[in-house]
Amino acid sequence: MDDFVRNKLTEWGLSEYIETFKDEGIDEESFYCLDFQDIANLIPKVGRRAIFKKRLMLLKGEDNTTYHQESIDSPPQFQREKEEAAESDQVLPSTSGTKDKGKRKLDLQGESSKWPSPPSKRQRTSGLGLYTEEIILSDVKSIMRFVQQRLPNQDSNINRFLRNKISDLETDKRVLVGVFGKTGAGKSSLINAVIGEKNLLPSGSISACTSVMIKVEANMKSPKYEADIEFITKEEWKDELWSLLNFLGDNADQGNDQDEEEDYRDIDEKLSAVYGEEWRSKSAEDLMDNKYFKEIPEFLQSKRKILTCESAKELSAKCVKYTKNDSKDGDGKDRKRWYWPLVKCVTVRVPKNYLLQHVTIVDLPGTGDRNKSRDEMWKSVVESCSTVWIVTELNRAAAEKETWEILKSASSIMGNGGECQQIHFICTKSDNIEDSDDSSAAGVRALIFKKNMKAKEEVNKEFKKLNKVKKHFGDDCFKVFTVSSKEFFKKRHLEPDETEIPKLQEFLQNLNDCHSETFNYVSGAYGILSLIQGARHTEVAGKKNEVCTELNENKRRECYEVQKSMNDTEIAFRKYLSKGVENSKKTCQEKLESNLNPKGVSGRGFHRILKCVVRNHGTYKPKNKKQINLNETLASCLTDSIDEEFRKTFPNERKCKPFNGVINKFSLDTKSLIERFTDVKLQLIFLKTEEIKMKTKLNKEIRDRKKKIYNSLTERIEKSMKECYEKAAGFKGEDTLKNMKETIMKHVLSSKDIMFEQAKEEMLSRLRDLMDYILKTLEETMQKSIELSLKTDDYPLPDFEAELEEVQKYYNDLKKRQEEETPQICFALLGEAADA
Ligand SMILES: Nc1nc2c(ncn2[C@@H]2O[C@H](COP(=O)(O)OP(=O)(O)OP(=O)(O)O)[C@@H](O)[C@H]2O)c(=O)[nH]1
């Protein structure tokens, strides 16, 4: 097969399937040796039929080894061949017989059972049989690439518009599930069990704990296990070294209370991991010498390190020195090097794991990292989690302070400051029963079930007490699971179902099934093809003007409704925030006092902590203690005042829509127009799909911006406090603690009359910006779509009737699947799309 044909196949998307063909024992080289008949036989296996066959026909010459470039590039020939192909039903005429020497012949009868397919409910009832969303999406994508390529080259408005619309169809949104929990709680074992990969994340060692963020995703492109290691930059490490060594220097003369010792141990652990004992006698400059990083040239070159392995076990072994911290790994020169302090994040990819097809699970080690870039990454991941798993050992679940503290401190980042819809509180190691009197199998099981019930009750009771968390998450967002990862694999006492791991798997499967991106893509593609076919009929110009007038009138009316509702939101925000400003002024002194004079901490200990707080712009997490965040404390009256209204306006639950659903109600009423103006039905279908696409895009943008709006209150306070933190950080010697406290307090008291007002105005101004953006997008996107879809263009467009038919089949099928099978939550998610 020559390069030309090879490139053509790549362009048409067949090469995407080469990986999949490998399961049939065909690698890339042998694929390109196949003849047309073989390829045609393979195609139905991956779900593409007529369209692809037609394209292959274009490549087919007099015999299987000659290809005609003209036949591909000239539209009339293309059209003729296409018609020919359409008549020839499913299978290409066999032309191989004589010339297949050296080529692989395939007998694919009955082979489809080998084909990898996701364990999705959707497969069963679909009108298109075993077509998975993945196949549909890939097929429609390849159709749209083909369409884009076929559009005439003339630079007309409609051409540009259509090309942009096709490029705009995007699908790669992933859902994030964040996993929190103290070290040793069983997070790695849980993730391994849920995704069915016993050996993926290393677990089990007592001293080695996970120290970097690990994202676990599917590798749909290759059958290999992969780890993609992202390092912090050299500059960041240099800054960190400097600050760690300085910290040790500053505190060398401070005596040793318990906190200091812990801090010292922390730093020792970090530096010894990378340098062994050598760091003790070296300067920060010396420690940046390239010789220390010989094993990781990627770090020096600011590149990612990619590890590729055949098995999970092999990958896990190779990965461990980048993810784990083993403080007990011997001393002295023989100590192995552990590189976790230099790693920002590791992404592990598991081959063909359908539970992870659209879902990423993130193992999140504790917050409060000294490294700024890692801390920022942690925050941004937490903000983006749609579900959070809080993991703790069942035996102490309700009483485990540290776990509940994690939930309390992260609730506003996940809730109003994020997009988390549900919290799963996962009690692990349910098989751990030491106090059983009855050691019979039945007795053990009975005790496990009893303890599970009790743990669920207690945890739910505990959750009900968390008033602050409940401002962000209602009772229905909180669910308790009692799992045993060990028993899931071992089945000694419990059946897999009784370990509750399958419940979590089902949850992930539903997240995959609810993935609306395929539907959005297919619906967008259907709209574009409808428009092209509609635009080819130029004889309905008169009708177009009439429809255009009605559409514009509908648009104006609907935009007015949106504006009215958003104005009400702004009024409510202003009212609640004003109350918040008044409360802040009244209570800030008292709140600050309690932060600056914490109970149970010695003066010397607090001196060191406060120094870190002011150096770190108002926030610091002492080891094993609650995080201190002066900015959040100062902003707390404002956030308290707005929390409820904010959650109502920007709910994380997908079934509720932002701004009381007013954007989702926006409609050009194309449905009734289609009944009256059948001649422009195709253009109106396009407008309906455009409307859906625009709303989806707006909802995404609102979700991103609402986090920034919420966080603006604390960020504005931090800005107002910047000057006094810098001043406080400069104190040295005697009375430093007193001077730091006085400086902070004085600054707050003198600026309280403007600081809180400014924070309020900042939030309102961001809210207004968002509202302006929404109105502008509604107005302009729809205006442009109406104008271009109903305007007769100067240039004729190619005929894509067959492509429209194919995509419409997929569209109808997906719509039907949603109606038949989608769980409640997905109805809500896709509600507007299904209406189309
Ligand atoms: N009996 C029992 N032990 C478990 C179970 N799950 C995990 N463990 C054990 O608990 C210990 C810690 O498990 P990990 O999965 O490594 O915990 P982790 O939360 O990932 O720990 P870090 O890596 O430190 O964050 C290991 O010794 C596991 O073998 C379980 O279901 N039952």
From TrEMBL:
<feature type="region of interest" description="Disordered">
    <location>
        <begin position="65"/>
        <end position="126"/>
    </location>
</feature>
<feature type="domain" description="Dynamin N-terminal">
    <location>
        <begin position="177"/>
        <end position="407"/>
    </location>
</feature>
<feature type="compositionally biased region" description="Polar residues">
    <location>
        <begin position="66"/>
        <end position="77"/>
    </location>
</feature>
<dbReference type="InterPro" id="IPR045063">
    <property type="entry name" value="Dynamin_N"/>
</dbReference>
<protein>
    <submittedName>
        <fullName>Nuclear GTPase SLIP-GC-like</fullName>
    </submittedName>
</protein>
<dbReference type="GO" id="GO:0003924">
    <property type="term" value="F:GTPase activity"/>
</dbReference>
<dbReference type="InterPro" id="IPR027417">
    <property type="entry name" value="P-loop_NTPase"/>
</dbReference>
<dbReference type="InterPro" id="IPR013761">
    <property type="entry name" value="SAM/pointed_sf"/>
</dbReference>
<dbReference type="Pfam" id="PF00350">
    <property type="entry name" value="Dynamin_N"/>
</dbReference>
<dbReference type="InterPro" id="IPR053082">
    <property type="entry name" value="Nuclear_GTPase_SLIP-GC"/>
</dbReference>
